[in-house]
Amino acid sequence: MYARFLFACALVVMISSAVAEDRVLPPAVRLPPELARVLTEYEAGWRAGDGAALARLFDEEGFVLPNGDAPVQGRAAIERYYKGPGSPLVLRAFSFATHGSVGYILGGFSKQEGQPDIGKFTLTLRKTSDGRWLIVSGMDNGNRPPQ
Known about the structure:
The chain contains four helices and six strands; from the N terminus they run αααββαββββ. It is α+β, with helices and mostly antiparallel strands. It starts with a helix and ends in a 5-residue tail after the last strand.
């Protein structure tokens, strides 16, 4: 009985892995400069572990919606949340749209240019009166199922 259970578990893992490997990731799209700035500044802030720089990319009452954790709201809380040692990050957009003063970017992320995405993200955006796009909400999660 135990051997059948282990065999069934191994089969599920093998099938899940094969399905995950067969998925085709959406191709990257080129963002307009005003939206590309959001991703470029996000990458720089993340790499530096600069919570203040990351928080400035968000609307004053913006949200971070972290995977497996409670929402974080407001620039001060976002700054504390993102303050850290920093680590490699490369963002790539695979979809975006804007309409008037609202927009979004969907994409994937990796630790190094040219590597496969290890996760994905969605950013909802609002354009300020001075034409600068700010993040209203940012959500990300990994591409691997939880262990």
